[in-house]
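Researcher: Quick test of sequence recovery. Tokens follow.
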């Protein structure tokens, strides 16, 4: 029964809205129905759904309602443990968190990961239902939504409270994945892989991360947590983190969550989750085995996009490029285009698991 229900094209139309109404939960009311009213529309749709369910039982040809696309409704119940176990390879999951406006960046990032043959491990944590359905429709099982979905209107404005709320969910998701026993690599999607980063995750450290400082370091710089800067803290990027499922890594994430709660968002501070991550690293440094990745392989955008001399000196060493130290979608896309890192226009069809979006 539910199988038949799930195969109907009407569902795809209904559930492409970010806040879908379940036809099964809306019962026809006794009041007069206006076609133009919202309730009227819901009732009408419910009737169409009911009709669609009944028609096959009434001997109508099923063909008119059959559709090749898989059900969208089932993804609402898809959980993080199910998703992690589906995508994990060698006990490792690559995670990003994306809201609908970032889908072009997700696609760009995915192309670069596919070139390194690590796309099978990718799990997209969808921050709205549109993203959950779009990704899973094209690439079943690779997106999960951990309810409740944050307010998608505000979630992507950098520095806003919505953005802060959105990023504050990250450490919780990562902790959950570690508690399930996986290694996890987190990436922001305004990144592009030029080489495979996994060979750089040497040794058995708890947490691997990159520095967001633009100052040039010697090639043989230390892998220790750098000394604090002007604000009394380090400037480690929360954009690219690799964690092993160890007590040390879990401690960092718990501390990160605590730090975010202790220093909640305020308009004046325009906070994001990065300062809290740095306080967590500094406060647990003695108890946790930390590893700073090499700058030449994982440069901040403040260095890669701004210092041509350095880029030439370190040619062939770059592994992941981060398009930060700039705000705004259009500016980020333009900069990626200028550096030949905007891959979606030409390569999405053949190289992205999502195809052209
Ligand atoms: C899993 O790890 C082994 C050994 O390190 C490696 O050869 C293999 O390619 C890995 N598989 C995947 C899917 O990454
Ligand atoms: C952010 O989260 C707080 C606390 O959960 C909530 O009260 C507030 O409405 C949220 N704001 C936005 C813009 O999402
Ligand atoms: C890096 O190399 C320089 C010159 O060879 C040396 O003096 C320095 O101690 C090295 N630094 C580290 C952290 O190994
Ligand atoms: C740019 O890179 C060069 C070469 O590494 C370095 O000597 C120079 O100090 C850098 N410039 C700035 C502004 O950081």
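Model:
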């Amino acid at each position: 029964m539910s199988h038949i229900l799930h195969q109907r094209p009407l569902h795809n139309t209904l559930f492409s809205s970010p806040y879908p109404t379940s036809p099964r939960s809306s019962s026809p009311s006794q009041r007069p129905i206006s076609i133009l009213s919202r309730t009227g529309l819901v009732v009408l749709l419910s009737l169409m759904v009911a009709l669609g369910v009944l028609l096959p039982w009434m001997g109508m040809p099923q063909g008119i309602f059959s559709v090749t696309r898989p059900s969208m409704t089932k993804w609402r119940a898809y959980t993080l443990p199910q998703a992690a176990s589906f995508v994990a390879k060698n006990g490792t999951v690559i995670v990003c968190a994306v809201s609908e406006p970032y889908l072009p960046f997700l696609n760009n990032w995915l192309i670069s990961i596919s070139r390194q043959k690590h796309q099978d491990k990718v799990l997209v944590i969808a921050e709205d239902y549109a993203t959950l359905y779009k990704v899973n429709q094209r690439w079943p099982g690779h997106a999960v939504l951990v309810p409740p979905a944050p307010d998608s209107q505000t979630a992507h404005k950098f520095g806003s409270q919505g953005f802060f709320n959105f990023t504050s969910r990250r450490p919780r998701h990562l902790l959950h994945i570690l508690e399930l026993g996986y290694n996890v690599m987190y990436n922001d999607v305004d990144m592009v892989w030029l080489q495979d980063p996994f060979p750089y995750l040497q040794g058995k450290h708890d947490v691997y991360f990159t520095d967001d400082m633009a100052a040039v370091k010697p090639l043989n710089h230390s892998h220790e947590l750098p000394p604090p800067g002007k604000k009394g803290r380090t400037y480690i990027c929360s954009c690219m983190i690799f964690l092993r499922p160890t007590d040390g890594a879990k401690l960092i994430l718990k501390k990160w969550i605590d730090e975010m709660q202790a220093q909640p968002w305020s308009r004046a501070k325009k906070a994001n989750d990065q300062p809290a991550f740095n306080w967590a690293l500094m406060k647990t440094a003695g108890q946790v085995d930390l590893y700073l990745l090499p700058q030449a392989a994982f440069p901040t955008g403040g260095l890669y996009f701004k210092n041509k001399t350095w880029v030439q000196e370190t040619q062939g060493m770059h592994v992941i490029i981060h398009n930060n130290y700039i705000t705004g979608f259009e500016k980020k896309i333009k900069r990626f285009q200028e550096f030949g890192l905007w891959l979606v226009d030409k390569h999405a069809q053949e190289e992205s698991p999502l195809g052209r979006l």
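Strands lie at 92-98, 122-126, 143-144, 183-187, 191-193, 207-211, 236-243, 290-292, 320-322.
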